[in-house]
Amino acid sequence: MSRPEYVEHLGVKIAVPEAAVSDTVLRFLKEGRYESREGKILDKIIDDGERVLELGAGLGFISTIAARNKKTEAVRAYEANPALASVIAATHRLNSVDNVDVRTGVLLRGSSANEMPFYVRNDFWGSSLSKKEGEKNAKEVMVPVFDLADVIYDFRPTMIVCDIEGGEVGLFDGMPMPPVKKILLELHQPVIGPAGVKSVFDCLSKSGFYYDQDHSMTGVVLFRKL
C-alpha cells in the first residue's frame, strides 16, 4: 500500500513524507496518538491577542492549531531538526496556514555558541541535543542556537508551547518572562527522571507560575502566571 500524502488528526492535515516520517510515527498519527493531549488542550486556552511561541515544532501540527484559532495574533515556531522544515511547510500549506514564522534552531539560555550538534534519530521525536552512550545510528547535524531571553524580548509571546525531549530542565530557571502568561509543557520523565520533573516545577514556581490542573493531562502540563 502506497503512503498517503497526509494523515488527518484532530482536524489537521499532517504531511507524512517517507524521508522524514518513520513508519512508527505514521502509525501513531493514524491511531490518533500524536500530540493529541497538546492538540486537545491548546484551542481551549488561547485568549484574544495570543502570541504563541513554540519550542519543538515537529511536523507543524501544534503551530497549525494555534495559527487557525481566530483569537491568535501571531505564531513563531522553532524546530531543531532541519529535515522537518519542509514537512512543517507542507503541513501549513495543506491547512491553508500562512501566518507562522518558522525557524530552524534550538533555544537555550545564555549560550555564547552560534551553533551546536543535534542528534537526529529515525523516529524524529527521539532526536535531541544529547548523544546516548554507545549510540551509532543517530545522525549528527549542526544547528543554529538562539538565546531564549532574546527571542522572548523580540517576539513578546503571551504563551509558550514546549516539547523538546528533556531540554525543558533548567530552561526557565528563575527567568523573568514579563509577557508570558501561560506555558504548555510536555514533561519527559523517562528522560529527565523525577528530579528533573521536580526541577521544572520548582523553576517555574520561582518565576511566578502555578500548575493549572484543569488544563493538564498526565505529562502535558499547563503552567499559568499568578
State the gist of this model.
This protein is of the alpha/beta class. It has six helices and twelve strands.
Q: From N to C, what is the helix and strand string?
A: EEHHEHEHEEEEHEEHEE
Highest-level CATH class = Alpha Beta
Distance between the termini: 52 Å
> Number of DSSP helices?
6
So what's the overall shape?
globular
Determine the CATH topology.
Rossmann fold
Overall mean confidence score, pLDDT = 94
CATH-scheme architecture: 3-Layer(aba) Sandwich
Number of domains: 1
Strand content: 25-35%
Structure commentary:
The chain has 226 residues and is an alpha/beta fold. Helices cover 27% and strands 31% of the residues. It has helices at 23-30, 36-45, 61-68, 85-94, 148-155, 189-206, and strands at 6-9, 12-15, 50-55, 72-79, 100-104, 106-108, 115-120, 139-147, 159-162, 182-186, 209-217, 220-225. The strands form 3 sheets. A 7-stranded mixed β-sheet has the order 5-4-3-9-10-12-11, with helices on both faces. The longest helix is centred in the last third of the chain and has 18 residues, at 189-206. The radius of gyration is 17 Å and the shape is globular. The chain starts with 5 loop residues before the first strand and ends with a strand. The model has no long low-confidence stretch (mean pLDDT 94). InterPro entries: FkbM_mtfrase (IPR006342), SAM-dependent_MTases_sf (IPR029063). Keywords: Methyltransferase, Transferase.
